Amino acid sequence: MRQKEELRKEKEAERRKAALEKAHARKIAKESMELIEDEQLEMMELAASSKGLSSIIRLDFDTLQNIESFRGSLCVFPPENVKLRKPFAIQPWINSEENVGNLLMFILDLRLLIQGLKAVVVYF
């Protein structure tokens, strides 16, 4: 009787683990449909290469749960030898509320334009 109970508990634990892994696989599949942050993708690639896998698709549940442990292995971006230019020659937000308003309106117009383009792409 005791063995049957232990066997039942083991099977139940295996079912729970399988259900968790299946749910996580669904989550990963859903995320793959969305944009993944570059940093997250790089950590997944590091994890796959450290395990000798050819693709991030083959990563197991435990590795994906501990993906943050690969953050220390990421390269610094941009490299220190790359000189970045400032995006604006002047800082339009410093001395003028009007400039701030114009900048925000430009960003809003840009967002609306992008949304419109997405709608056109979906239509076709």
Automatic annotation (TrEMBL):
InterPro entries from the UniProt entry: RLT1-3
Report the domain of life of the source organism: Eukaryota
Q: Which residues form a coiled coil?
A: 1-30
- GO MF terms held by the record: DNA binding
Presence of the UniProt keyword Zinc in the record: no
Give GO BP annotations, semicolon-separated: regulation of transcription by RNA polymerase II
**Alphabetized UniProt keyword annotations:** Coiled coil, DNA-binding, Homeobox
What is the name of this protein?
Homeobox domain protein
